[in-house]
Specification:
The complex is a heterodimer of chains A (about 575) and B (about 300). Chain A has about 575 residues and is an alpha+beta fold. Helices cover about 65% and strands about 15% of the residues of chain A. Chain A is built from 15 helices and twelve strands. In chain A, the strands form three sheets. Chain A has a five-stranded antiparallel sheet with strand order 2-1-5-4-3, with helices on both faces. In chain A, helix 9 packs antiparallel against helix 10 (about 370-385) and helix 14 runs antiparallel to helix 15 (about 535-545). Chain A is elongated and about 215 Å long. Mean pLDDT of chain A is about 85; it is low at about 160-165. Chain B has helices at about 1-15, 35-50, 75-85, 95-100, 115-120, 135-145, 160-170, 185-195, 215-225, 250-265, 290-295; strands at about 20-30, 60-70, 90-95, 110-115, 125-130, 150-155, 175-180, 200-205, 230-235, 245-250, 275-280, 285. Chain B is elongated. Classes of the chains: A alpha+beta (about 575), B alpha/beta (about 300).
């Protein structure tokens, strides 16, 4: 049953077939290795037995040389019996040159030994010799002596070279028979050990090959599994057959695909030709359009240039308008102040005329101090009144001084307002800038408006003073304009928040509608009547503040008023920025 | 004037005696060192003994030409070469050299380091020399001083070769008993040695080529070891092999004795009137390791 399943699996699975082939091959190799190793071991051990046995025989032959020479049986017996006491040695025999046994000692362990005649034949044929018998090994070694040709001179003065060259003469033979009992046992043990080692190696190798094979064939098995899944195939009897079928199908499909690709390639070439033609036409069109666009671009550039020129003219006119307003304000103020002076001048003339007249009368009285003259002087002086004349002079002088002071202040404000920006960024006090700007507000709009100052302590702020003043003037004029009809108040609040200076202008004017609020910084947008405003004042202001890395925030409610808040970064001169 | 000068020269030449001169050919049996030692001593002594007549005398001319025998050279050719050179004297070192040069009868021959000259050559008028072996009685007298307890001396010998040597020793040492064991082949040595067990105090190893061979030599030392009997050997080379005592041959003295013989021959004394010389002084060397192992006590104060 199990064998049947195994054979079935073996037939079905290609990997099982390969593994089986490997294992069979390994077993065959292991068997061959075992046999070879055993043979080598046996051969080596036999060689060892040969060399060690012959060495033993040689040693015995040397040691008994004299006793064999003299055939001293008693002395010969001692080494023979000593050697026989060894376990494996069965027989030790010393023979004379003629093959007569001088000493022979035998030990019987039950195994048959080679016959004496057989040993004798071996010895006399080719001694020294070694021979392996069924149950024993036999060794023999000749006992030799040098030929006795010593001269009398050699006895005294060492060996004679002639004697050394002389040949050895045989005296007898040594024969030793050693049992194979231990040899056979050792050979068997070696074979068992070798067999076990090879078996263990075989098991390890088989396990290793199985693991390796499983890893190596994993992609192939996965492929077969996927094929089965894709084609909904259950158990198959031949994995390789399935692979073959699948691969053949794939190759056929691939051929079809290549054919289709060829067809598509051919049609694609036509399409590409057609599309190329179309693209060339489109390219021509594009070139025409590009030329048209370049022409249009030139026109646009010219229009932009014209527009920039117009904008420049507008800005210039806005500047001129602002200057006009300032000049008007200055003229109004100076005129007011001059009124102080011009108003005092007639009275001054009269008082001076009175003083001249009085002085004349004094001069006449002093020249001609007649009572009449004196009386006339006194009467005139009384008419004038002592104190009134000088009091009125003081008052007039005070008015003139006031007029002069105010004019000086106006000029000072004008200087502050109109600082030249060519000097670049300067650190200025923004509160002072606001004050100087207030001087040049439209006095007509200022009639019903209350200016409320709510200044906080501001540090010096690096900016272009002329530009900043222009912004303040613009915002405040807009606020005053918004309050022209009904009047109101303009509250100016300055404060520092974080690293920024805030200048807030709150008016109680008409406010800005929600629709218009997003557009107030657009150029040429204005809610004023035609001729009252250019519509670029706030746009310029926005640009100026942007140039100062600041911003303008506006909140407004129609009918209630607007709130413009200029926020400027507080930057010292050292770390100043350059717009 | 010229006639007077010529006359003076003729008178001087006529009245001048022959200058002393000696040409020697030394023939060595082999390149063995003992031959070189003896020959060198001979040469030095010969020069020393040459006549000198004052400090301004003409130096005597002594020429010693050495030759070493080898197996390839034919004896006849060698003898011809020597004869053609007409030397004044031949020195033969070793038996082989003596055997080769003995056929030359017209040139005096002095042999040196020849163990038994009689075995090599019969008595010949032009041959004399220095005997290798010391006087037999002398070596036992010296030994008696070292080991007074030695009374019985055992000896194995070939009667055909060394009987005379043993007889001489026995005659010279009446107080010793020489226990003789003849052996005519090496195989008999072991049994003859066994027969000496308990019979002797000292075993005398004689220079007998029948008795001493590489095989039998061991039986001597084994016997001595088992019986705790010291061996007196005739050559120092046996000391290292197990002999207790050995006669030390004074090779230089033998060379000098040969030089004295040469001087006498040069003076005109025929070799036949110069009997072979024999060294009288005998030195005995001792292997103290063997002596200790045998448990022997030597006479105090002896070497």
């Amino acid at each position: 049953m199990i064998l049947g399943r195994f054979i079935k699996q073996l037939r079905a699975s290609y990997s099982a077939k390969l593994i089986a082939i490997f294992i069979v091959a390994l077993c065959l190799m292991a068997t061959a290795l075992n046999i070879t190793t055993n043979r080598i071991q046996k051969s080596t051990y036999t060689e060892y037995m040969r060399t060690s046995g012959l060495a033993m025989a040689q040693l015995l032959a040397k040691s008994v040389q004299l006793d064999v020479f003299t055939e001293n049986i008693e002395e010969l017996t001692i080494p023979v019996e000593s050697l026989l006491s060894q376990d494996d040695i069965l027989q030790v025999e010393i023979l004379s040159r003629k093959g007569v046994s001088l000493v022979r000692r035998t030990k019987n362990n039950g195994d048959p030994m080679p016959s004496h005649d057989a040993i004798l034949a071996e010895i006399q044929d080719k001694a020294p010799h070694f021979k392996e018998w069924p149950h024993s090994f036999s060794y023999s070694w000749p006992v030799e002596a040098l030929a006795t040709t010593s001269s009398a001179d050699a006895l005294f003065f060492g060996e004679d070279p002639e004697q050394l060259q002389s040949e050895s003469v045989p005296l007898g033979y040594i024969s030793i028979i050693v049992s194979k009992m231990h040899y056979t046992k050792n050979i068997r043990q070696m074979a068992i050990r070798t067999g076990l080692t090879i078996l263990l190696l075989l098991i390890l190798l088989t396990a290793g090959i199985l693991l390796l094979f499983r890893r190596m064939t994993l992609p192939l098995r996965t492929l077969i599994h996927k094929i089965k899944e894709q084609h909904h195939i259950g158990e198959v009897h031949d994995d390789i057959g399935l692979l073959d079928t699948t691969v053949t199908g794939l190759i056929t499909d691939l051929d079809h695909s290549f054919q289709t690709i060829n067809d598509l390639t051919n049609s694609l070439e036509d399409k590409v030709t057609e599309r190329t033609r179309q693209l060339a036409m489109a390219n021509d069109t594009l070139i025409t359009r590009q030329e048209y666009l370049e022409e249009a671009n030139k026109k646009l550039e010219k229009a932009m240039k014209d527009l920039q020129e117009a904008e420049g003219q507008l800005i210039q006119s806005e500047k001129m308008a602002a200057i006009g307003q300032v000049v008007a304000g200055v003229a109004h103020e100076i005129n007011n102040n001059i009124n102080f002076i011009s108003g005092a001048l007639p009275s001054m003339d009269r008082s001076i005329a009175d003083i001249k007249q009085l002085t004349g009368k004094f001069t006449a009285a002093s020249t001609n101090p007649t009572p009449a003259n004196l009386m006339a002087v006194r009467a005139f002086h009384k008419e004038l009144g002592d104190d009134d004349l000088f009091e009125s002079l003081d008052l007039l002088m005070a008015n003139i001084r006031e007029g002069v002071n105010r004019t000086t202040n106006i000029i000072s404000d004008l200087k502050t307002f109109s600082r030249v920006d060519e000097q670049g960024y300067q650190e200025i006090d923004l509160n002072k800038s606001i004050d100087s700007t207030l001087t040049f507000l439209n006095k007509q709009h200022l009639q019903h408006v209350e200016i409320r100052k709510n200044y906080g302590a501001l540090p010096l702020v690096s900016c272009l003073p002329g530009r900043i003043n222009q912004v303040f003037l613009n915002i405040m004029n807009n606020a005053l304009h918004a309050m022209t009809a009904q009047g109101g108040s303009l509250t100016i609040t300055t404060f520092v928040k974080g690293s920024q200076a805030h200048i807030r202008f709150e008016d109680t004017g008409v406010g800005i509608s929600k629709e218009k609020l997003p557009k107030i910084f657009d150029a040429f947008f204005t809610s004023k009547n035609i001729g009252e405003g250019s519509g670029i004042g706030l746009a310029i202001s926005y640009k100026i503040i942007e140039q100062h890395k600041g911003r303008i925030e506006v909140t407004s409610e129609e009918g209630k008023g607007s709130n413009f808040e200029v926020i400027l970064p507080i930057v010292s001169r050292e770390e100043g920025w350059h717009g | 004037m010229l006639n007077r000068l010529c006359l003076t020269i003729l008178i001087i030449i006529h009245t001048a005696t022959a200058c002393y001169g000696l040409e020697v050919v030394a023939v060595k049996s082999s390149p063995a060192q003992p031959y070189d030692v003896a020959l060198q001593a001979f040469s030095q002594q010969l020069i020393a003994l040459s006549p000198v007549r004052g400090t301004k005398a003409i130096k005597p001319v002594i020429t010693i030409r050495g030759m070493t025998l080898n197996s390839e050279e034919q004896p006849d050719a060698l003898r011809r070469t020597i004869s053609q050179g007409k030397p004044d004297l031949i020195v033969a070192l070793g038996s082989k050299a003596l055997r080769v040069t003995a056929p030359i009868h017209d040139i005096p021959i002095i042999y040196l380091l020849v163990p038994v000259p009689d075995d090599v050559v019969s008595r010949q008028a032009n041959i004399t020399g220095v005997l290798l072996q010391p006087e037999a009685g002398a070596q036992f007298r010296t030994l008696k001083n070292i080991m007074p307890s030695a009374k019985r001396v055992g000896v194995i010998y070939d009667p055909d070769k060394t009987t005379a040597l043993i007889d001489n020793a026995a005659r010279a040492n009446k107080n010793l008993v020489f226990v003789r064991r003849p052996a005519r082949s090496p195989q008999e040595v072991a049994s003859q040695l066994s027969s000496l067990e308990g019979e002797i105090d000292l075993l005398w190893m004689v220079p007998d080529s029948t008795i001493l061979s590489p095989q039998t030599e061991k039986s001597f030392f084994r016997f001595a070891h088992k019986q705790k009997i010291p061996i007196l050997a005739f050559s120092e080379k046996y000391l290292a092999r197990g002999a207790s005592f050995a006669i030390s041959l004074n090779l230089e003295e033998m060379g000098r004795m040969a030089a004295r013989l040469a001087t006498q021959i040069q003076k005109g004394i025929a070799p036949q009137h110069l009997p072979p010389l024999k060294t009288l002084k005998v030195d005995i060397k001792i292997n103290r390791t063997i002596i200790d192992k045998l448990g022997l006590k030597l006479q105090e104060g002896q070497p």
